[in-house]
Amino acid sequence: AICGHGCKYGECTGPNKCKCFPGFTGKTCNQDLNECGLKPRPCEHRCVNTHGSYKCYCLNGYMLMPDGTCASSRTCAMVNCQYGCEEVKGEVQCLCPSGGLQLGPNGRTCIDIDECSTGKAVCSYNRRCVNTFGSYYCKCQLGYELKYISGRYDCVDVNECVTNTHRCNLHAECLNTEGSFKCKCKQGYRGSGFDCA
After folding, report:
1. Percent of the chain beyond pLDDT 90?
2. What SMART domains does the record point to (predicted)?
């Protein structure tokens, strides 16, 4: 089977037919499935969607059980956690919904970790890091766009001269460069390329 558009998080099962891995959806399996919006709801109390999966949390005063249900807990109610808690060896600990969040100084609320500035994020050379609450993603650098080429997604240079998104003067030539472009005044004209006289 050949899928010309590719299956990002899935397998090609027939001509241009993708079978998505759990937690993903879309024609090319490139979209995260929001399990929290499914019926029946996967969590008893609070649901937090994550990339390719989800996590369950309990309301304050309840504790998350191994089977995903929420059980009433007097100790959890006393601690007053933002995203519920768990008891480990008789100690009550507040939880955070993802690895991109950490417990704040008060030990009850969750604060964002900026993976882009701490260097925890790994983006390839032609992508830039964008921080989000609880996570991050890698976006194509300016002057590049995401395309599906030879079996994978990659950031490729935008040819501004072809797409006509350059700002060269009417009397200038546009020259494409990696991630950008240059303007050169035509013969008989002088200037920066953006202004030619």
Report:
1. 29
2. EGF, EGF_CA
